[in-house]
Amino acid sequence: MAIEVRIPTILRTYTDGRKAVPGEGETVAALFTDLETRHPGIRERLVDGGELRRFVNVYLNDEDVRFLKGIDTELADGDSVTILPAVAGGAR
């Protein structure tokens, strides 16, 4: 099962600068475990206590997994997963 994982700039230090990496897994959780085997340290940036970190957004084929089954969202061959850190701030 091949899944394309799009990596945000802030996490590319874990993927040797690559914008997208292949991954495998039947769920988002399994995908993150698979990514950790090839890109040590990345899972810790995405998951906390078995759930997505508060300021990490994950999209499965452009749909926010929080509105599906969260980290237990099922994946299929050919899916695309995009990881986006939430951005906040600005000046008054």
From TrEMBL:
InterPro entries in UniProt: Beta-grasp_dom_sf, Mopterin_synth/thiamin_S_b, Sulfur_Carrier/Prot_Modifier, ThiS/MoaD-like
Record Pfam families: ThiS
PANTHER family: SULFUR CARRIER PROTEIN CYSO, SULFUR CARRIER PROTEIN SLR0821-RELATED
Name of the protein this chain belongs to: MoaD/ThiS family protein
Organism: Streptomyces lonarensis
Taxonomic classification: Bacteria, Bacillati, Actinomycetota, Actinomycetes, Kitasatosporales
